[in-house]
Write a structure and sequence with these properties.
The chain is α/β, with parallel strands linked by helices. It contains eleven helices and twelve strands.
Length: about 350
């Protein structure tokens, strides 16, 4: 029995551009990619608590609260995967209205920084410079009353944030990263660092940080949920638009920031691009806890392929203009990239 082939359709002569030609094989696709992704571009967030043993965080599968010893070991794992930068969030054993453990020389971030740098001097340690994990009310500075309502005393907070940054630098932090969204915090910290002899320590500004619903898992992990109200009076309005984002970034650039950050990342890819186009400082995207938790939940429900989803998300940050990405997926993503290189 003879089977006749269907007639070949006539190809239109004007079809001269065929983008599929350059996507035909993995090697061809890799040849001309505009966006690169490497473990060296990841910043791994770590929660450090006082006491012994590592603790599970129920809202963030795979993320732990580390003891100092556990953190030292985990940093070693990160370095082996090519993740050379970590950011430390402290969970103190004692909290008070002033957040005193944030700027004490024996504060948990300072202790952990010294231990990590002693064991792994090659790692870059970023210290999160804020007070919300250290205050008993969960806000990012001491409180005052304005118009009959309690709120953060902006200028009093500046002094404490500056003291915190100096204590972190004295402990060996390579970068300090103020995240409180207080007006003037970058200038206050830069002045204090310089006066203390730390002119070489850069400031990574959480310049464009929104009052976001994506922070829930972080607040459970760090024990930093506000005891009243919210942070909408100092963090940015999600509907504020580009002008507010540009203004916040410009103020921090003028005050001496060395890096800018947009937080959260995924809902604000457009803002990352706007900041990238307007300023030439290195730009960080923070792939926050809620974004991480959503992927983990969808993977657990069998709805998503974790590897493909995570790497696609990280590529999106790079494509939008981020130079580096702060992400809880850092070690998994680095492992996947390493496996790809070994194939």
């Amino acid at each position: 029995m003879t089977t006749s082939l269907p007639a070949r359709p006539e190809v239109r002569a004007e079809l001269t551009e065929r983008p599929r030609r350059t996507r035909r094989t993995p090697a061809l696709r890799a040849l001309t990619r505009e966006v690169t992704l490497s473990a060296a571009q990841f910043i791994y967030p770590m929660f450090i608590h006082e006491g012994e043993g590592d603790q599970v965080i129920t809202t963030m599968p795979g993320v732990l609260r580390y003891s100092v010893a556990g953190a030292v070991a985990r940093v070693g794992e990160a370095l082996a995967l090519g993740v050379n930068t970590v950011v430390l969030f402290g969970i103190p054993g004692h909290k008070d209205a002033q957040g005193t453990q944030a700027y004490h020389d024996s504060g948990i971030v300072q202790v952990a920084t010294k231990a990590i740098k002693a064991a792994h001097p090659e790692v870059t340690v970023i210290a999160d410079t804020c007070l919300c994990e250290y205050t008993d009310h969960g806000h990012c500075g001491p409180l005052c009353e304005i118009g009959g309502e309690l709120t953060v005393d902006n200028d009093a907070a500046l002094e404490l944030l500056a003291r915190t940054a100096v204590a972190q630098a004295r402990a060996g932090a390579d970068i300090v990263a103020p995240s409180a969204m207080m007006d003037g915090q970058i200038g206050a910290i830069r002045t204090a660092l310089d006066a203390a002899g730390f002119t070489h320590v850069p400031v990574m500004s959480y310049a464009v940080k929104y009052a976001s619903g994506y922070y829930g898992p972080f607040r459970e992990a760090a024990g930093s949920t506000p005891s009243f109200g919210d942070r909408g009076s100092y963090q940015m309005d999600p509907a504020g638009g580009y002008r507010e984002a540009l203004r916040e970034a410009r103020l921090d650039v003028d005050q001496g920031a060395d890096y800018l950050m947009v937080k959260p990342g995924l809902p604000y890819l457009d803002v990352i691009r706007v900041i990238r186009d307007a300023f030439d400082l290195p730009l960080i995207a923070y792939n926050v806890s809620g974004e991480y938790a959503m992927v983990k939940a969808a993977v657990a429900a069998g709805m998503l392929d974790e590897r493909r989803t995570v790497l696609e998300t990280l590529i999106a940050f790079r494509r939008a203009g981020a130079d580096a990405i702060m992400t809880y997926h850092a070690l998994d993503a680095a492992r996947w990239l390493k496996e790809d290189q070994q194939r």
